[in-house]
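Our preliminary data section would be incomplete without showing what the modeling component actually yields. Below, a chain of 344 amino acids is followed by its predicted structure, encoded as C-alpha coordinates that our downstream tools consume directly.
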Amino acid sequence: MSRSIRVLLLAAAIGLLAGCAEWPAAPRPDYRPVAAKDPRTLAAAYMQRRAGRPPVLVGAGDIALCQDPEQAKYAEATARLLEAVPDALVFTAGDHAYQDGTWAEYIDCYDRYWGRKGIKERTLPAPGNHDYGNMRRPREASAYFRYFGAAAANAGTEGFGYYSLDLGGWHIVSLNSDIEMRLRRDLSLSREDEALLAAEVARQREWLEADLAAALGKQTKCILAIWHHPRFTRAPRGDNTPTAKLWELLSAANADLVVNGHEHIYETFAPRNASGAYDPGGIREIVAGTGGAGGGSGQTAAAYHFGVLKLTLGADAYAWEFLGVPGDSLTDSGSASCNGKRGA
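Predicted structure:
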Protein backbone atom coordinates (compact mmCIF):
# COMPACT_ATOMS: atom_id res chain seq x y z
CA MET A 1 0.00 0.00 0.00
CA SER A 2 1.43 3.34 -1.01
CA ARG A 3 2.09 6.10 1.54
CA SER A 4 -0.49 8.42 -0.13
CA ILE A 5 -3.23 5.79 0.16
CA ARG A 6 -2.37 5.18 3.85
CA VAL A 7 -2.63 8.93 4.50
CA LEU A 8 -6.04 9.09 2.83
CA LEU A 9 -7.33 6.11 4.81
CA LEU A 10 -6.07 7.61 8.07
CA ALA A 11 -7.77 10.94 7.30
CA ALA A 12 -11.04 9.16 6.53
CA ALA A 13 -10.85 7.20 9.79
CA ILE A 14 -10.22 10.37 11.78
CA GLY A 15 -13.19 12.06 10.10
CA LEU A 16 -15.42 9.05 10.88
CA LEU A 17 -14.39 9.04 14.53
CA ALA A 18 -14.97 12.79 14.76
CA GLY A 19 -18.43 12.38 13.33
CA CYS A 20 -19.26 9.62 15.83
CA ALA A 21 -18.03 11.75 18.70
CA GLU A 22 -20.16 14.67 17.60
CA TRP A 23 -23.42 12.76 17.11
CA PRO A 24 -24.91 13.08 19.58
CA ALA A 25 -22.76 15.42 21.64
CA ALA A 26 -22.96 15.18 25.41
CA PRO A 27 -25.17 18.06 26.57
CA ARG A 28 -23.59 20.65 28.77
CA PRO A 29 -24.51 20.41 32.48
CA ASP A 30 -26.97 23.32 32.37
CA TYR A 31 -28.69 22.20 29.15
CA ARG A 32 -32.45 21.90 29.46
CA PRO A 33 -34.11 21.44 26.07
CA VAL A 34 -37.16 23.61 25.40
CA ALA A 35 -39.81 22.13 23.14
CA ALA A 36 -40.51 23.86 19.84
CA LYS A 37 -44.10 23.92 18.65
CA ASP A 38 -45.81 23.05 15.40
CA PRO A 39 -46.14 26.32 13.41
CA ARG A 40 -49.90 26.16 12.90
CA THR A 41 -50.60 25.25 16.51
CA LEU A 42 -48.31 28.04 17.65
CA ALA A 43 -49.98 30.58 15.34
CA ALA A 44 -53.52 29.63 16.38
CA ALA A 45 -52.73 29.86 20.09
CA TYR A 46 -50.93 33.15 19.55
CA MET A 47 -53.86 34.77 17.76
CA GLN A 48 -56.24 33.68 20.52
CA ARG A 49 -54.10 35.60 22.99
CA ARG A 50 -53.96 38.68 20.78
CA ALA A 51 -57.65 39.48 21.36
CA GLY A 52 -58.03 41.46 18.16
CA ARG A 53 -54.60 43.09 18.22
CA PRO A 54 -52.42 42.71 15.10
CA PRO A 55 -49.79 39.96 15.17
CA VAL A 56 -46.13 40.90 15.57
CA LEU A 57 -43.08 39.03 14.29
CA VAL A 58 -39.53 39.76 15.36
CA GLY A 59 -36.33 38.06 14.24
CA ALA A 60 -33.37 37.90 11.86
CA GLY A 61 -31.05 35.47 10.15
CA ASP A 62 -27.38 34.57 10.70
CA ILE A 63 -27.37 34.21 14.43
CA ALA A 64 -24.99 32.29 16.69
CA LEU A 65 -21.24 32.32 16.10
CA CYS A 66 -19.50 31.29 19.31
CA GLN A 67 -15.96 30.36 18.29
CA ASP A 68 -14.94 33.92 19.15
CA PRO A 69 -16.25 35.23 22.51
CA GLU A 70 -16.23 38.74 21.09
CA GLN A 71 -18.62 37.55 18.37
CA ALA A 72 -20.86 35.53 20.69
CA LYS A 73 -21.80 38.67 22.61
CA TYR A 74 -23.89 39.82 19.64
CA ALA A 75 -26.09 36.71 19.73
CA GLU A 76 -26.63 37.43 23.42
CA ALA A 77 -27.51 41.06 22.65
CA THR A 78 -30.02 40.17 19.93
CA ALA A 79 -31.57 37.49 22.19
CA ARG A 80 -32.20 40.20 24.76
CA LEU A 81 -33.98 42.22 22.09
CA LEU A 82 -36.28 39.26 21.51
CA GLU A 83 -36.93 39.00 25.23
CA ALA A 84 -37.87 42.70 25.26
CA VAL A 85 -40.75 41.91 22.86
CA PRO A 86 -42.37 38.95 24.67
CA ASP A 87 -45.71 39.33 22.90
CA ALA A 88 -44.24 38.66 19.43
CA LEU A 89 -43.61 35.45 17.54
CA VAL A 90 -39.95 34.94 16.66
CA PHE A 91 -38.88 34.14 13.10
CA THR A 92 -35.48 33.05 11.89
CA ALA A 93 -34.11 33.45 8.36
CA GLY A 94 -31.51 30.69 8.45
CA ASP A 95 -27.94 30.05 9.63
CA HIS A 96 -28.69 29.43 13.29
CA ALA A 97 -25.42 27.81 14.42
CA TYR A 98 -21.98 28.38 12.90
CA GLN A 99 -19.93 27.09 11.24
CA ASP A 100 -21.49 23.79 10.21
CA GLY A 101 -24.82 23.54 12.03
CA THR A 102 -23.68 20.55 14.10
CA TRP A 103 -25.60 19.31 17.12
CA ALA A 104 -22.79 20.49 19.39
CA GLU A 105 -22.98 23.97 17.86
CA TYR A 106 -26.73 24.04 18.34
CA ILE A 107 -26.74 23.08 22.01
CA ASP A 108 -23.57 24.94 23.01
CA CYS A 109 -24.10 28.07 20.93
CA TYR A 110 -27.55 28.76 19.46
CA ASP A 111 -29.37 27.23 22.41
CA ARG A 112 -27.63 29.54 24.91
CA TYR A 113 -29.11 32.58 23.20
CA TRP A 114 -32.06 32.26 20.82
CA GLY A 115 -32.92 28.77 22.11
CA ARG A 116 -33.47 29.60 25.74
CA LYS A 117 -36.83 29.46 27.48
CA GLY A 118 -39.16 32.25 26.46
CA ILE A 119 -37.76 32.38 22.91
CA LYS A 120 -37.54 28.90 21.37
CA GLU A 121 -41.12 27.91 22.12
CA ARG A 122 -42.41 30.88 20.07
CA THR A 123 -39.96 30.46 17.17
CA LEU A 124 -40.81 29.89 13.50
CA PRO A 125 -37.52 28.73 11.89
CA ALA A 126 -36.24 28.59 8.31
CA PRO A 127 -33.02 26.77 7.31
CA GLY A 128 -29.85 28.29 5.85
CA ASN A 129 -26.71 26.96 4.24
CA HIS A 130 -24.74 26.83 7.50
CA ASP A 131 -27.49 24.64 8.95
CA TYR A 132 -26.54 22.11 6.28
CA GLY A 133 -22.82 22.61 6.84
CA ASN A 134 -20.24 21.60 4.28
CA MET A 135 -20.17 18.46 2.15
CA ARG A 136 -23.56 17.20 3.36
CA ARG A 137 -26.20 15.36 1.36
CA PRO A 138 -29.44 17.22 0.48
CA ARG A 139 -31.47 16.02 3.49
CA GLU A 140 -28.73 16.13 6.08
CA ALA A 141 -29.38 19.34 7.98
CA SER A 142 -29.88 16.76 10.70
CA ALA A 143 -29.13 18.92 13.74
CA TYR A 144 -31.48 21.67 12.52
CA PHE A 145 -34.38 19.25 12.06
CA ARG A 146 -33.60 17.44 15.30
CA TYR A 147 -33.37 20.65 17.30
CA PHE A 148 -36.55 22.32 16.03
CA GLY A 149 -38.55 19.15 15.41
CA ALA A 150 -42.13 19.85 14.37
CA ALA A 151 -41.41 23.58 14.12
CA ALA A 152 -38.99 22.91 11.24
CA ALA A 153 -41.50 20.85 9.21
CA ASN A 154 -39.21 17.84 9.14
CA ALA A 155 -42.20 15.64 8.39
CA GLY A 156 -45.74 15.90 7.12
CA THR A 157 -47.21 17.26 3.93
CA GLU A 158 -44.70 20.08 3.50
CA GLY A 159 -41.62 17.91 3.37
CA PHE A 160 -38.23 19.06 4.56
CA GLY A 161 -37.83 22.61 5.78
CA TYR A 162 -40.85 24.48 4.41
CA TYR A 163 -44.34 25.13 5.73
CA SER A 164 -47.09 27.73 5.88
CA LEU A 165 -49.52 29.15 8.43
CA ASP A 166 -52.23 31.77 8.76
CA LEU A 167 -51.75 34.62 11.19
CA GLY A 168 -54.68 36.98 11.41
CA GLY A 169 -55.35 38.18 7.86
CA TRP A 170 -51.86 37.14 6.77
CA HIS A 171 -50.66 33.98 5.05
CA ILE A 172 -47.02 33.23 5.89
CA VAL A 173 -44.77 30.80 4.04
CA SER A 174 -41.38 29.71 5.37
CA LEU A 175 -39.23 28.20 2.62
CA ASN A 176 -36.02 26.22 2.19
CA SER A 177 -33.83 28.22 -0.19
CA ASP A 178 -30.78 26.05 0.40
CA ILE A 179 -32.13 23.22 -1.72
CA GLU A 180 -32.70 25.76 -4.52
CA MET A 181 -29.14 27.08 -4.20
CA ARG A 182 -27.39 23.72 -3.99
CA LEU A 183 -28.31 22.68 -7.51
CA ARG A 184 -26.01 25.47 -8.67
CA ARG A 185 -23.41 25.38 -5.93
CA ASP A 186 -22.66 21.74 -5.21
CA LEU A 187 -20.82 20.63 -8.32
CA SER A 188 -19.49 17.57 -6.46
CA LEU A 189 -22.91 15.98 -5.88
CA SER A 190 -23.26 12.40 -6.98
CA ARG A 191 -25.76 11.68 -9.71
CA GLU A 192 -28.06 10.08 -7.13
CA ASP A 193 -27.90 13.07 -4.79
CA GLU A 194 -28.39 15.54 -7.63
CA ALA A 195 -31.53 13.69 -8.69
CA LEU A 196 -32.79 13.65 -5.10
CA LEU A 197 -32.13 17.37 -4.76
CA ALA A 198 -33.83 18.21 -8.06
CA ALA A 199 -36.89 16.25 -6.94
CA GLU A 200 -37.02 18.16 -3.65
CA VAL A 201 -36.70 21.50 -5.45
CA ALA A 202 -39.58 20.56 -7.77
CA ARG A 203 -41.67 19.36 -4.83
CA GLN A 204 -41.20 22.61 -2.90
CA ARG A 205 -42.15 24.70 -5.92
CA GLU A 206 -45.24 22.59 -6.61
CA TRP A 207 -46.21 22.79 -2.96
CA LEU A 208 -45.74 26.58 -2.89
CA GLU A 209 -47.87 27.07 -6.00
CA ALA A 210 -50.69 24.97 -4.53
CA ASP A 211 -50.35 26.58 -1.11
CA LEU A 212 -50.62 30.10 -2.52
CA ALA A 213 -53.62 29.13 -4.66
CA ALA A 214 -55.36 27.78 -1.56
CA ALA A 215 -54.57 30.97 0.36
CA LEU A 216 -56.01 33.13 -2.41
CA GLY A 217 -59.07 30.91 -2.51
CA LYS A 218 -59.65 31.80 1.15
CA GLN A 219 -59.52 35.51 0.30
CA THR A 220 -56.20 36.06 2.06
CA LYS A 221 -55.42 39.78 2.13
CA CYS A 222 -51.65 39.78 2.73
CA ILE A 223 -48.78 37.34 2.08
CA LEU A 224 -45.32 37.21 3.71
CA ALA A 225 -42.52 34.80 2.77
CA ILE A 226 -39.36 34.07 4.77
CA TRP A 227 -36.28 32.25 3.51
CA HIS A 228 -32.51 32.50 3.75
CA HIS A 229 -30.89 33.53 0.44
CA PRO A 230 -32.12 36.93 -0.83
CA ARG A 231 -33.33 37.05 -4.41
CA PHE A 232 -31.96 40.61 -4.68
CA THR A 233 -29.13 42.15 -2.70
CA ARG A 234 -26.56 44.92 -2.97
CA ALA A 235 -23.94 42.75 -1.24
CA PRO A 236 -20.82 41.96 -3.29
CA ARG A 237 -21.82 38.33 -3.76
CA GLY A 238 -24.81 39.56 -5.75
CA ASP A 239 -28.33 38.34 -6.40
CA ASN A 240 -29.28 34.72 -5.76
CA THR A 241 -30.89 33.81 -9.08
CA PRO A 242 -31.72 30.17 -8.12
CA THR A 243 -34.44 31.61 -5.88
CA ALA A 244 -36.08 33.40 -8.83
CA LYS A 245 -38.80 30.76 -9.21
CA LEU A 246 -39.89 31.27 -5.59
CA TRP A 247 -40.14 35.01 -6.24
CA GLU A 248 -42.07 34.43 -9.48
CA LEU A 249 -44.67 32.26 -7.77
CA LEU A 250 -45.10 34.81 -4.99
CA SER A 251 -45.30 37.65 -7.50
CA ALA A 252 -48.04 35.84 -9.40
CA ALA A 253 -50.00 35.69 -6.13
CA ASN A 254 -49.48 39.42 -5.50
CA ALA A 255 -47.47 38.72 -2.34
CA ASP A 256 -46.45 41.70 -0.27
CA LEU A 257 -43.23 41.08 1.62
CA VAL A 258 -40.18 38.78 1.58
CA VAL A 259 -37.67 38.63 4.44
CA ASN A 260 -34.23 37.03 4.03
CA GLY A 261 -30.86 36.65 5.73
CA HIS A 262 -27.59 35.20 4.35
CA GLU A 263 -25.84 38.51 3.78
CA HIS A 264 -24.68 39.80 7.17
CA ILE A 265 -26.08 43.23 6.52
CA TYR A 266 -29.39 45.05 6.69
CA GLU A 267 -31.04 46.40 3.57
CA THR A 268 -34.53 47.23 2.35
CA PHE A 269 -35.85 47.48 -1.18
CA ALA A 270 -38.80 49.21 -2.80
CA PRO A 271 -41.36 46.78 -4.24
CA ARG A 272 -40.16 44.84 -7.30
CA ASN A 273 -41.74 42.58 -9.86
CA ALA A 274 -40.40 39.19 -10.90
CA SER A 275 -37.86 40.72 -13.29
CA GLY A 276 -36.44 42.96 -10.57
CA ALA A 277 -37.88 46.23 -11.88
CA TYR A 278 -39.56 48.71 -9.56
CA ASP A 279 -43.28 48.02 -9.34
CA PRO A 280 -45.54 49.72 -6.76
CA GLY A 281 -47.67 46.57 -6.77
CA GLY A 282 -44.66 44.28 -6.43
CA ILE A 283 -42.96 42.59 -3.48
CA ARG A 284 -40.89 44.48 -0.94
CA GLU A 285 -37.75 42.66 0.22
CA ILE A 286 -35.95 43.18 3.53
CA VAL A 287 -32.59 41.50 4.19
CA ALA A 288 -31.87 41.14 7.90
CA GLY A 289 -28.78 38.98 8.31
CA THR A 290 -28.12 40.79 11.56
CA GLY A 291 -28.83 38.18 14.24
CA GLY A 292 -25.30 38.08 15.63
CA ALA A 293 -22.85 36.61 13.12
CA GLY A 294 -20.70 39.28 11.48
CA GLY A 295 -18.33 38.89 8.57
CA GLY A 296 -18.77 36.76 5.50
CA SER A 297 -20.39 39.23 3.11
CA GLY A 298 -17.35 41.05 1.80
CA GLN A 299 -18.26 44.32 3.51
CA THR A 300 -16.18 46.64 5.63
CA ALA A 301 -16.63 46.51 9.40
CA ALA A 302 -18.61 49.76 9.24
CA ALA A 303 -21.28 48.02 7.14
CA TYR A 304 -22.18 45.50 9.84
CA HIS A 305 -25.09 46.00 12.14
CA PHE A 306 -26.62 43.73 14.74
CA GLY A 307 -30.26 43.70 15.66
CA VAL A 308 -33.66 42.26 14.80
CA LEU A 309 -36.45 43.17 12.43
CA LYS A 310 -39.87 43.83 13.96
CA LEU A 311 -42.93 43.37 11.74
CA THR A 312 -46.42 44.47 12.75
CA LEU A 313 -48.95 42.77 10.49
CA GLY A 314 -52.14 44.80 10.23
CA ALA A 315 -55.44 43.81 8.63
CA ASP A 316 -54.43 45.16 5.21
CA ALA A 317 -51.05 46.81 5.86
CA TYR A 318 -47.73 46.22 7.58
CA ALA A 319 -45.03 48.17 9.39
CA TRP A 320 -41.39 47.34 9.87
CA GLU A 321 -38.73 48.58 12.28
CA PHE A 322 -35.10 47.64 12.81
CA LEU A 323 -34.28 47.22 16.49
CA GLY A 324 -30.52 47.56 16.92
CA VAL A 325 -28.46 46.26 19.80
CA PRO A 326 -27.33 48.91 22.31
CA GLY A 327 -24.83 51.20 20.63
CA ASP A 328 -25.80 50.29 17.07
CA SER A 329 -26.36 53.41 14.97
CA LEU A 330 -28.73 51.97 12.36
CA THR A 331 -32.35 53.08 12.41
CA ASP A 332 -34.95 52.11 9.85
CA SER A 333 -38.74 51.91 9.85
CA GLY A 334 -41.65 52.23 7.47
CA SER A 335 -45.11 51.03 6.58
CA ALA A 336 -47.07 50.06 3.49
CA SER A 337 -50.45 48.74 2.40
CA CYS A 338 -50.88 45.19 1.18
CA ASN A 339 -51.32 44.54 -2.53
CA GLY A 340 -54.74 43.70 -3.87
CA LYS A 341 -55.08 39.96 -4.30
CA ARG A 342 -56.34 38.08 -7.33
CA GLY A 343 -58.52 35.02 -6.90
CA ALA A 344 -57.06 31.54 -7.06
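Confidence is low (pLDDT under 50) at residues 1-26. The chain has one domain: 35-337. Preliminary results of this kind motivate Aim 1 of the renewal.
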